[in-house]
């Protein structure tokens, strides 16, 4: 596929090519493109915003099609070749409804086979949710445990200034071998950030991977400025995906699940129980949030479930099984 575009972000397809814009300028862009070959002839428009890599969309008679791709930005109008397209939903205001839950569940099934699609989908959904609590335009956001930078890209696309903090340089290079922009190597248990230095401290599915989760939570509060937001989300151990790739066998014990995975796949799981994955429930972090002297709790909800299921987190016992992923949102005092 070839087509003239004006660029300031990421693209619409996988393939090869260059993205460029006028020297010194990175405007939002719109343009058109057309394709023949493996897919039926079509024409559509494309648009994006931000700098670096985010996600654009190509609108055609078939709907919205998109596959994010990291390309470089340098000079003027260019063309590129597309080898694959994937249908995605048109971006809409955040709504915690059943259709969103189903959409996320389908995306989770592609985590191993198509991580770019899965993490890109989750990142855009998460940032849309985060904007319901605070304005992200111009905000400095610490992405704790940000790994390859999917969430940082989505944050940057809405005007935030993310700082990606992770203790594993290898994890940060997973996407293209390079560190994410504005990456900082450091532990979530001792964040290398000054007290009160960020507007938002954000973490998605990291808390279950640290041996002292409440210390990490305290650190997130510490680095957030007064009035700033802490967004802390993690996978609940007794939920259906508590054991990550070893699920659902984690219900018979984390060590058993890890051994079974190794026997079946010929290698240990990426998330090893007791080493890089720990059993964490709803009760203790929720109690921590309620007792936190330096922050007030704004929300405690099952992150991926519809809004009408939000009260399940207040039902002892049941909440451990059905919450799936707990989201705690706090405001720094």
TrEMBL record:
<dbReference type="GO" id="GO:0008757">
    <property type="term" value="F:S-adenosylmethionine-dependent methyltransferase activity"/>
</dbReference>
<dbReference type="InterPro" id="IPR013216">
    <property type="entry name" value="Methyltransf_11"/>
</dbReference>
<dbReference type="InterPro" id="IPR029063">
    <property type="entry name" value="SAM-dependent_MTases_sf"/>
</dbReference>
<protein>
    <submittedName>
        <fullName>Methyltransferase domain-containing protein</fullName>
    </submittedName>
</protein>
<dbReference type="Pfam" id="PF08241">
    <property type="entry name" value="Methyltransf_11"/>
</dbReference>
<keyword id="KW-0808">Transferase</keyword>
<keyword id="KW-0489">Methyltransferase</keyword>
<feature type="domain" description="Methyltransferase type 11">
    <location>
        <begin position="143"/>
        <end position="231"/>
    </location>
</feature>
<dbReference type="GO" id="GO:0032259">
    <property type="term" value="P:methylation"/>
</dbReference>
């Amino acid at each position: 596929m070839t087509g003239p575009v004006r660029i300031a972000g990421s693209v619409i397809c996988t393939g090869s090519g260059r993205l460029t814009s006028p020297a010194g300028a990175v405007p939002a862009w719109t343009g058109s493109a057309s394709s023949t070959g493996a897919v039926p002839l079509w024409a559509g428009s494309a648009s994006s915003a931000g700098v670096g890599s985010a996600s654009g969309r190509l609108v055609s008679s078939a709907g919205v099609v998109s596959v994010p791709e990291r390309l470089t930005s340098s000079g003027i109008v260019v063309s590129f070749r597309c080898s694959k397209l994937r249908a995605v939903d048109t971006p809409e205001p955040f709504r915690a409804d059943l259709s969103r839950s189903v959409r996320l569940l389908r995306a989770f099934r592609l985590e191993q086979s198509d991580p770019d699609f899965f993490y890109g989908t989750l990142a855009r959904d998460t940032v849309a949710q985060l904007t319901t609590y605070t304005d992200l335009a111009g905000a400095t956001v610490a992405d704790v445990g940000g790994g390859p930078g999917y969430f940082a890209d989505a944050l940057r696309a809405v005007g935030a200034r993310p700082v990606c903090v992770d203790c594993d340089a290898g994890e940060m290079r997973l996407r293209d071998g390079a560190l994410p922009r504005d990456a900082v190597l450091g532990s979530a248990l001792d964040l290398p950030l000054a007290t009160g230095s960020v507007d938002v401290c954000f973490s998605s599915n990291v808390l279950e991977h640290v041996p002292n989760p409440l210390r990490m939570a305290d650190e997130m509060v510490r680095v957030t400025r007064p009035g700033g937001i802490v967004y802390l989300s993690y996978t609940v151990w007794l939920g259906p995906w508590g054991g990550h790739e070893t699920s659902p066998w984690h219900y018979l014990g984390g060590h058993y699940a890890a051994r079974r995975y190794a026997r079946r796949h010929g290698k240990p799981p990426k998330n090893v129980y007791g080493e890089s994955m720990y059993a964490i429930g709803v009760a203790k972090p929720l109690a921590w949030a309620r007792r936190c002297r330096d922050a007030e709790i704004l929300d405690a909800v099952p992150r991926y479930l519809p809004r009408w299921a939000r009260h399940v987190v207040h039902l002892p016992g049941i909440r451990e099984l059905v919450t799936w992923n707990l989201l705690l949102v706090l405001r720094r005092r």
